[in-house]
Design a protein that fits this description.
Blueprint lengths: L8 H4 L5 H24 L8 H19 L1 H8 L2 H21 L3 H4 L6 H10 L2 H16 L1 H8 L2 H23 L11 H24 L5 H4 L9 H61 L1
Length: 290
């Protein structure tokens, strides 16, 4: 165990960077203002969906805790696997919850501006959103950019912003609250989108799992809990590969079941309509005979 990692680590290694604290306060403040005074002033909606509010605030606080708690220090100075946990929290917990917590009536007025609408439609196109999400993932895990990011605070902050923003773009085609302008994909397209978007992450996770240690910071980091650099990177790769894939499989399975139910309901409706038409024809035929 390294000299800098002791029993007091979990009490002292909190990240008091103003950008994290002030940024979180600003986002929550603006959201609550929009859900309350702004909504009432411009008559945007009659009421607030408490489930949406809880989802958004939970997402923001997950991101805050990931960056503010000792997990951030653990990820920066000790374990690559902790870094992977942090980034999964940003992209796969915080980002989708923020999208779920965004009401359509809050976004719709912005889309009246033609430029905003066109930009939004472009960046939430499945191919663009999926490409940006995975390109961001691969870019920051390339050893040169990762080593530069981990030792440069502004670059580090910028990378976290990109993980959250590309995460929001990625989840928008799946969870969009809008019916027009920037609507969600159909269920069939959601399944295809998730399937193809998962492949680059699987490849990156597998590559990290089966290659020798790539990152200088963790090769020379103090050893904690008996975890070697090789095992640490393998754990990080597996965290990206296995839980991420399981998450996608679960979501795709739910979407597939919903798609099957919709197909069954549609078929039943068509059969019922055909039966009604045949019944009307039979009645008309019998009336003609009489």
């Amino acid at each position: 165990m390294g000299n800098n990692f002791g029993p007091d680590f979990w009490l002292t290694a909190w990240n008091w960077q103003p950008s994290i604290i002030l940024g979180t306060i600003a986002i929550i403040g603006l959201y609550l203002y929009a859900m309350g005074p702004l909504r009432k002033k411009y008559h945007l909606a009659d009421s607030v969906n408490m489930g949406q509010m809880i989802a958004f605030l939970l997402g923001v606080n997950i991101i805050f805790l990931a960056l503010f708690t000792p997990l951030d220090k653990l990820a920066d100075d000790y374990l690559f696997s902790a870094h992977m946990v942090l980034h999964l929290l940003l992209s796969f917990a915080g980002a989708p919850l923020m999208v779920l917590g965004t009401p359509g009536w809050l976004v719709q007025p912005l889309l009246r501006n033609r430029v905003v609408l066109k930009l939004g439609q472009f960046f939430t196109m499945p191919i663009v959103a999926g490409l940006l999400f995975n390109a961001n993932l691969w870019f920051w895990h390339a050893p040169p950019t990762y080593n530069a990011m981990i030792s440069n605070l502004p670059l580090h902050i910028f990378s976290h912003l990109l993980f959250v923003s590309t995460g929001v773009l990625f989840w928008w085609p799946l969870l969009s609250p809008l019916k027009d302008g920037l609507p969600p994909l159909s269920i069939g397209k959601k399944i295809a989108y998730l399937f193809f978007s998962d492949m680059p992450m699987v490849l990156l996770g597998a590559g990290l799992t089966f290659t020798s240690p790539l990152y200088t910071r963790y090769i020379h980091a103090p050893r904690i809990w008996g975890i070697s650099p090789e095992v640490d990177q393998q754990l990080g790769g597996l965290l990206m590969w296995i839980p991420g894939s399981i998450f996608f499989i679960v979501v795709v399975s739910i979407l597939f079941i919903r798609w099957m139910q919709e197909q069954d309901a549609r078929q039943r409706a068509e059969e019922a309509e055909m039966y009604d038409e045949e019944e009307i024809e039979d009645e008309a035929g019998q009336a003609g005979i009489v």
